[in-house]
């Protein structure tokens, strides 16, 4: 149960960091025929501070997906596979779980840097087009995005497929866990108090995934 509480604490921290970064950046989405960018227009939009905060927001979004998936797996084991509940009580298992999560975040970081971090040529393309941005010049703004002209190569295609597969995998894990938890709660003959407690936890998970 302590592990689950840490998950909620991490969720609260992630939500707070994401909200603060968003307020500081006020990001806008600009789409053209050959590119899509997220550009910072807020108080901390200037380079390099805005660039760091944009990267932080991206990592926080990935972390949110990771937290939700971990929570679904935890509840699935606690409700449907009690014989494996020892996993969250062993130090070795916790270390393995942490390493796997860190590997996922590292993967997200690589995708961010390789696919979304603007290159010099990408920046020059935007400077020439003179996108209308309030206040200061575009050269001072921080942005991330993807250009069909300057961002497409074998490595970025591979990483985009990798990211898509991870999204599909996490979606399948969450959907399967939710289905099995719901089915198990209906089938088990346990006390009403226990059922209500599990249902509340299940509904909380569903709210987190929205």
UniProtKB/TrEMBL annotation:
The chain crosses the membrane at residues 7-30, 50-73, 94-120, 157-179. It comes from the Eukaryota. InterPro entries: 7TM_GPCR_serpentine_rcpt_Str (IPR019428). Keywords: Membrane, Transmembrane, Transmembrane helix. The keyword Transmembrane applies. The keyword Isomerase does not apply. PANTHER family: 7-TRANSMEMBRANE DOMAIN RECEPTOR C.ELEGANS, SEVEN TM RECEPTOR. This is 7TM GPCR serpentine receptor class x (Srx) domain-containing protein. It comes from Ancylostoma ceylanicum. The lineage of its organism: Eukaryota, Metazoa, Ecdysozoa, Nematoda, Chromadorea.
